[in-house]
């Protein structure tokens, strides 16, 4: 196990370094100039030079990179070119929003998706399955922004049940916070719920027709125990993989959802930064996203062995 | 920043929103009429009229309440010296008063000054009398020393965006606490316009000393409201300032600007009551908002313009000496005039913007005190003439021209309408959509034949003309040079008299239309939607939302 962790750790560090280089070079290869984007309508040469000097953009690329890595190693992500605020403080306000949104979306998606998936498998060929399938189809095929706009139109504008935009930090007012974030989380979770439902359903169908389930039934176990303790547990391995893989999709979905609901999260920050060529912010965001991916994948691998003890983690490549 | 840059949302999202709008029209989410809502009474004006909003009646508004304004783009640094974005001015309007302001006719009026400045006979000494008994939000007194410190920061800070606006200021004197004297190297008429914008916002010296370059983190000025909190990319909050010299005129407790970059989402927030004001309403949404009995739409014609820039000499990048380009469009003014004659501006504005925006043929807005008959003359739409000019220039038709345009929906619809239009004049227009930041880059490098962009406009005409068409000027991306025009513009800059400047700018417009390196197309109307429960919110031709003295109806 220790050897496995060590291998994973240096692999992760390498991946991080590589992604840093790719992003650093990539954002600078984009057409467009942050000084121009910032200068707005006043694009006098002195103004542009002053901006470039101030943010060190006049230095050669390798020098800029070395300075960047040195600062990041000390936990300093630099200062946003657009707003002049430290990137780390922008991250500390944006990150909790997106984390809360994503976690809530995953919880909602898992509850809905696993529940509907099990129901569809157990009640195969009956109206309950058709209903669950129809919902899944809608969840998969209707894009977030469309659902989001409909939700705003009907649940905010027409009925006033939920606020159409805005955010209240969790620690400031938990109830108001939930009131603001539930709608975006449901919208964000719909696609994932549909995927989870489909996967749970097919994995459950597989398990339900397997020998061990027949054995369990033959032993006289109650149907509920057969489904939850035997069939579902074995099906979850697929579901966990899917949730892990879909997390990336969730983050890109959060970009759209945050934009629509005006949530001050990571996604909105990324979009704005890319359009403004705000290099320090883009770099920090991508670095953190890469780090998040690495950590999530690591935990998904660990979870396998928890769910199915036959899977053992070792340091040797399989 | 032009209004076209406002849409910083992804293209996909925008397209989707448009799709939803279409679907909504089909499912009848709200009645859509193309009549422009002209039958509505009161402040719901028809498409063609300006409506700036009226001051609040103190007897009819109640004290207190928080106003939420949905903004289309994020303001940049809240530092009057560094700010470059149009949107910062919305926030500054509530918390950073200026030496001068403008009224609804775009005339300069005193704000922190007590009267218009007196200028010496040689035009080189400008004396400004200041208000007495005024305090900054931190309690320190507002006096001539504070004005001097602010102006010196504007002039000396390395990243100052104000330096060029203030022109040839040689020194600032403070004969007493209530008088400031500006010494100029030469007369500079646009100075007054600058002092009615960010250059005239005075900052607290104490805050400048303690915060330095970080002034934007906790800005302190004189204003009805003071800075409270900013969440980057999300919101800016200000609260009422008890130190304000006319605190009894302030009704609201707080104002919050919330950044919602999508026009449909801003409109939805207004309808749901989460916001009371929405800026930059889409021309597509205006009709349906006018039908809404709880909302009124303010509209004011902007001082800026949207137009087409033709690359006539920008080979090595902006601000380098113009070089000849081997293209008929660049070489021959007749080809450019032909292009202008092929455009039907009125049809363009009606088709693309529901007739909300107005036709423009020059950089001078008819709303400007410097407008004249010459400044408003307009080459007629005449495809026959266009073809004739092309024949005279010896160009084979259809003549293919490639246009760079921003990839926002509004901009693309405009480009497509142009494409269809100029065909009759013998042009084959190819559209090359580019993302906004890239567009600016290509523009400055001179990598274009024709491109579509605009300018948000300033009070003084010099700021709307010289920078764009003066030889070697900072934003002369066309690479255009006409010494005769340069002379006219220099004279206008130094002329003290409005009538004289008017005449000179009229002559300049005639030259601009002959050379046609910049073809002016239309002038935007600043569209602001306001909930009817709010009184006293105003938008003047500078496009800035004036919310400081608004209040909720009793």
TrEMBL record, chain A:
Topology of this chain in the membrane: Multi-pass membrane protein
TM stretches of this protein: 101-122, 134-157, 177-197, 236-261, 281-304
Keyword Transmembrane: yes
InterPro entries with a match to the protein in the record: BPD_transp_1_N (IPR045621), MetI-like (IPR000515), MetI-like_sf (IPR035906)
Residues in ABC transmembrane type-1 domain copies: 95-300
Localization: Cell membrane
Gene3D superfamilies referenced in this protein's UniProt entry, alphabetically: MetI-like
Keyword Repeat (UniProt): no
Keyword list, A-Z: Cell membrane, Membrane, Transmembrane, Transmembrane helix, Transport
Origin superkingdom: Bacteria
PANTHER family referenced in this protein's UniProt entry, alphabetically: DIPEPTIDE TRANSPORT SYSTEM PERMEASE PROTEIN DPPB-RELATED (PTHR43163:SF6)
Family the entry assigns: Belongs to the binding-protein-dependent transport system permease family.
Name this protein carries in UniProt: ABC transporter permease
TrEMBL record, chain B:
Keywords: Signal
UniProt domain Solute-binding protein family: residue ranges: 107-474
SUPFAM superfamilies named among the record's database cross-references: Periplasmic binding protein-like II
Pfam families (alphabetical): SBP_bac_5
Region ranges (Disordered): 33-59
PANTHER family in the cross-refs: D,D-DIPEPTIDE-BINDING PERIPLASMIC PROTEIN DDPA-RELATED (PTHR30290:SF38), PERIPLASMIC BINDING COMPONENT OF ABC TRANSPORTER (PTHR30290)
Name of the protein in question: Solute-binding protein family 5 domain-containing protein
């Amino acid at each position: 196990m220790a050897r496995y962790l060590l291998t994973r750790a240096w692999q992760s560090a390498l991946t991080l370094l590589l992604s840093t280089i790719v992003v650093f070079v990539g954002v600078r290869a984009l057409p467009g100039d942050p000084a121009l984007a910032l200068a707005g309508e006043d694009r006098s040469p002195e103004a542009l030079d002053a901006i470039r000097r101030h943010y060190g953009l006049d230095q050669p690329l390798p020098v800029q990179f070395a300075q960047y890595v040195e600062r990041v190693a000390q936990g300093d992500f630099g200062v946003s070119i657009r707003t002049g605020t430290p990137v780390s403080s922008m991250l500390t306000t944006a990150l909790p929003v997106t984390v809360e949104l994503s976690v809530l979306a995953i919880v909602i998606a898992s509850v809905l998706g696993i529940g509907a998936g099990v129901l569809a498998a157990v009640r195969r060929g009956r109206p309950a399955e058709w209903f669950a399938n129809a919902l899944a189809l809608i969840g998969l095929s209707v894009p977030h922004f469309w659902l989001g706009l409909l939700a705003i139109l009907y649940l905010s504008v027409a009925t006033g049940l939920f606020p159409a935009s805005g955010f209240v930090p969790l620690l400031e007012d938990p109830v108001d916070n939930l009131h603001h974030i539930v709608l975006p989380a449901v919208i964000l979770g719909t696609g994932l719920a549909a995927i989870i439902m489909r996967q749970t359903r097919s994995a459950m169908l597989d398990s339900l027709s397997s020998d061990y389930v027949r054995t369990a039934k033959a032993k006289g176990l109650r149907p509920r125990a057969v489904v939850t303790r035997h069939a579902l547990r074995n099906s979850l391995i697929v579901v966990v993989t899917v949730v892990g893989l879909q997390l990336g999709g969730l983050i890109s979905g959060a970009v759209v959802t945050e934009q629509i609901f005006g949530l001050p999260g990571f996604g909105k920050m990324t979009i704005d930064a890319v359009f403004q060529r705000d290099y320090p912010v883009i770099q920090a965001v991508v670095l953190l996203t890469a780090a998040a991916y690495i950590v999530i994948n690591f935990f998904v691998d660990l979870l396998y062995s928890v769910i199915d003890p036959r899977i053992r983690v070792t340091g040797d490549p399989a | 920043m032009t209004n076209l840059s406002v849409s910083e949302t992804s293209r996909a999202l925008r397209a989707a929103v448009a799709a939803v709008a279409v679907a909504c029209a089909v499912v009848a989410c709200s009645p859509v009429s193309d009549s422009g809502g002209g039958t509505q009474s009161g402040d719901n004006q028809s498409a063609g009229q300006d409506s700036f909003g009226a001051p609040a009646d103190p007897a009819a508004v109640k004290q207190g309440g928080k106003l939420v304004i949905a903004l289309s783009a994020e303001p940049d640094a809240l530092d009057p010296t560094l700010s470059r974005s149009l949107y910062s001015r919305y926030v500054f309007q509530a918390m950073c008063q200026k030496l001068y302001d403008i009224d609804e006719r775009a005339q300069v009026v005193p704000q922190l000054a007590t009267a218009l400045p007196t200028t010496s006979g040689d035009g080189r000494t400008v004396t400004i009398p200041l208000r007495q008994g005024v305090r900054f939000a931190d309690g320190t007194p507002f006096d001539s020393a504070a004005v001097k410190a602010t102006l010196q920061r504007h002039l000396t800070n390395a990243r100052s965006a104000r330096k060029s606006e203030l022109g040839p200021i040689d020194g600032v004197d403070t004969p007493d606490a209530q008088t400031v004297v500006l010494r100029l190297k030469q007369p500079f008429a646009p100075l007054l316009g600058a002092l009615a914008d960010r250059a005239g916002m005075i900052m607290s010296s104490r805050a400048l000393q303690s915060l330095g370059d970080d002034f934007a983190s906790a800005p302190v000025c004189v204003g009805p409201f003071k800075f409270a909190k900013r969440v980057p990319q999300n919101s800016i909050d200000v609260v009422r300032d008890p130190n304000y010299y006319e605190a009894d005129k302030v009704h609201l407790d707080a104002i919050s600007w919330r950044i919602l970059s999508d026009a449909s989402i801003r409109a939805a927030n207004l309808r749901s009551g989460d916001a009371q004001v929405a800026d930059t309403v889409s021309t597509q949404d205006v009709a349906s908002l006018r039908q809404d009995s709880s909302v009124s739409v303010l509209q004011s014609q902007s001082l800026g313009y949207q137009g087409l820039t033709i690359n006539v000499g920008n080979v090595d990048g902006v601000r380098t000496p113009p070089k000849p380009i081997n293209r008929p469009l660049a070489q021959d003014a007749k080809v450019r005039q032909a292009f202008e004659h092929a455009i039907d501006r009125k049809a363009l504005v009606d088709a693309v913007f529901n007739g909300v925006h107005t036709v423009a043929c020059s950089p001078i807005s008819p709303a400007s005190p410097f407008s004249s008959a010459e400044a408003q003359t307009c080459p007629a739409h005449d495809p026959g003439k266009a073809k004739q000019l092309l024949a005279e220039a010896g160009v084979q038709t259809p003549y293919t021209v490639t246009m760079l345009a921003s990839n926002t929906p509004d901009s693309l619809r405009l480009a497509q309408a142009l494409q269809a239009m100029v065909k009759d004049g013998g042009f084959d227009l190819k559209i090359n959509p580019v993302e906004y930041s890239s567009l600016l880059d290509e523009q400055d490098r001179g990598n274009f034949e024709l491109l579509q962009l605009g300018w948000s406009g300033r009070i003084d005409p010099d700021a709307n003309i010289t920078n764009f068409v003066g030889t070697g000027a900072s934003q002369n991306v066309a690479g255009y040079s006409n010494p005769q025009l340069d002379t006219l513009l220099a004279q206008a800059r130094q002329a003290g008299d409005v009538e004289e400047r008017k005449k000179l700018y009229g002559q300049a417009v005639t030259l601009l239309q002959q050379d046609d390196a910049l073809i002016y197309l239309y002038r935007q109307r600043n569209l602001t939607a306001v909930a009817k429960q709010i009184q006293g919110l105003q938008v003047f031709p500078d496009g800035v939302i004036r919310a400081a003295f608004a209040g909720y109806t009793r």
